[in-house]
Design goal:
By secondary structure, the chain is an all-alpha fold. It is built from 21 helices and no strands.
């Protein structure tokens, strides 16, 4: 299999980042439509609850446990025998389909027991609605799971377009329903649109797989060495993710006990919290992971350490300023995206307060996406399991008392601290194994410079917002968008200028490339191509 060049990697990161940005913006339009139509109502709580378990299963089984293990295994076979690689893909696809069908049947049959356990604070009416919506949404986990596996296949072959673009189907179907459906039972139509949008993500990617010459075979070769290896590596990772998402279950359970609408507030804030990770860190991890897996197969792991360092530097450079900015401007961002219709100012303040503390975990979460793939590339899934188990024990002990004392803010703080605990432990283990940071000699200096530039940029935009605050509260969507956009652009300029002046390598690279491109444009204007300047015809 041909190794992608650095230029191709840069283009791939750019493509995935661009698509992720577009889909993220579309997703926030969708969340804004939810907020305007349902606000923080019991109906919204019920929809969040119905969507919760299928989403968790998808993130745990497919995105978390299967895809990271499948990619290096498939690449290993593809480098030796493409025909055998397609046989591996078929066996895994059939196994996943069968498993998800069984899981769906069990999930629907037992929903009346697990739903009241997870959301124990719901009223009987909200629980009843949650169950009915679950019966509509849950079956799509089969299509969504297969979509994730197909996307992993495409990514392993350095095809990133359709896996990155397919999630748009969910938003494109749900937004019109939220805006146009006016019946009292509109929430059921929203659930049906959700189910259809999730299922379509599979069928959008199928033509791309067929163009690559995929050979699908119907059969269940459970004894194939690749399947056995997948199970050996995937089971510990599956347990790791089950432990990780057990924290999410505890979080939703504690929120459901506070007041009607608290689950919705956590959901809205979480959508904003994951923005730096999904928009900035996820594209990097998607593109870098095949490189990690490739380097791990070489003698002494090739340049795996250098690649992890490179990705980690980028994560700190781009996510830390975004997290600081989000913490400072949580209220205006929340008001811009959500505050309309049934989502009122009090909802904005509660969501922003939760988000501010939650964002303490933004950089640890983003770094973990890279560091975990360092473990997966060397086929170590047991170490992350042990680390996540310790983090869950901490969260399980700390979250209830903090929630009793400080409400949603205590819940957010406990979660952020658990994110930090996981990342620190991953760093310590990798440091002992490969001298990841000590030999690189960059961590303290790089982090300190980026943090100083981020705080200074945040202070400038905080003072800047002070001039617009009174006007911002009177503005509608467009006016608020312009002000928030101005804060983002000015903050980015100040951050780049300060980090450049402190000789942060990534900032210098960004600005130097910009100046080089600008110089080429000016040169082209000064010395136009012959024919266009003189009116002569080009040969």
């Amino acid at each position: 299999m041909k190794q992608p060049s650095s230029a191709r990697l840069v283009r791939a990161v750019g493509l995935v980042s661009f698509l992720t940005l577009g889909i993220a913006l579309l997703g926030y339009v969708r969340e804004g439509a939810f907020a305007a139509r349902l606000g923080t109502s019991a109906e919204m709580d019920a929809y969040v609850a119905a969507f919760f378990m299928p989403n968790v299963l998808y993130l745990v089984v497919i995105t978390g446990a299967l895809s990271p293990v499948f990619i290096p295994i498939f690449m290993e076979y593809a480098q030796r025998d493409k025909e055998e690689a397609w046989r591996v893909f078929s066996s895994v696809l059939n196994l996943v389909a069968l498993t998800l069908v069984v899981v769906t049947g069990i999930g629907i049959a037992t929903a009346r027991w697990w739903m009241p356990t997870i959301f124990s604070g719901f009223s009987p009416q909200t629980l009843g609605l949650s169950l009915r919506l679950t019966y509509i949404i849950f079956p799509t986990i089969v299509f969504l799971g297969l979509s994730g596996l197909v996307g992993a296949l495409l990514n392993s072959l350095n095809h990133f377009l359709w896996p990155a673009a397919s999630p748009a189907a969910y938003s494109l179907l749900v937004i019109p329903v939220l805006l146009l459906a006016r019946t009292e039972r509109a929430i059921y139509i929203v659930a049906a649109a959700t189910a259809l949008g999730l299922a379509l993500q599979l069928f959008i990617q199928v033509p791309a797989v067929r163009r690559l010459g995929a050979c699908y075979r119907l059969g269940f070769d459970f004894r194939h060495p690749a399947v056995l290896k997948l199970a050996k590596l995937g089971v510990p990772l599956l347990f790791y993710l089950l432990v990780a998402y057990a924290s999410v279950v505890v979080e939703r359970n504690l929120a459901s006990r506070l007041w009607s609408g608290a689950v919705s507030i956590v959901n809205y804030a979480t959508k904003l919290f994951v923005l730096p990770t999904n928009l900035l860190a996820a594209p990097l991890s998607i593109v870098f992971y095949p490189t990690f897996a490739r380097e791990a197969t070489r003698v002494n792991c090739g340049e795996l350490r250098e690649e992890i360092v490179k990705a980690s530097r980028l994560i700190i450079f781009i996510v830390l300023p975004a997290a600081v900015w989000m913490m400072i401007h949580a209220r205006p961002v929340t008001q811009l995206l959500y505050e309309r219709g049934q989502f009122h100012r009090g909802d904005s303040l509660a969501t922003a307060a939760f988000l501010t503390l939650y964002c303490l975990g933004s950089l640890p979460t983003a770094l973990a996406t890279i560091l975990l793939r360092g473990f997966y590339s060397v086929q170590d899934t047991l170490t992350p399991l042990g680390i996540e188990t310790a983090s869950f024990v901490f969260y399980f002990v700390a979250a209830p008392p903090l929630t009793r004392l400080y409400g949603l803010q205590g819940l957010a703080l406990a979660r952020a601290l658990s994110f930090l605990l996981v990342t620190v432990a991953l760093v310590i283990v990798l440091e002992k194994r490969m001298g990841l940071f000590a030999r690189a000699g960059w961590l303290v200096s790089h982090f300190g410079k980026v943090l100083a530039a981020s705080l200074a940029s945040g202070l400038v935009t905080w003072l800047e917002f002070g001039f617009f605050e009174a006007s911002f509260d009177r503005q509608h969507l467009l006016g608020r968008a312009l002000i928030v956009g101005l804060l983002a652009v000015s903050g980015g300029i100040v951050y780049l200028a300060l980090s450049y002046s402190m000789r942060v390598e990534e900032a210098r690279s960004v600005i130097d490339r910009f100046l080089t491109s600008l110089g080429k444009v000016r040169e082209a204007e000064t010395h136009p191509v012959k024919g266009y300047a003189t009116g002569e015809k080009l040969p």
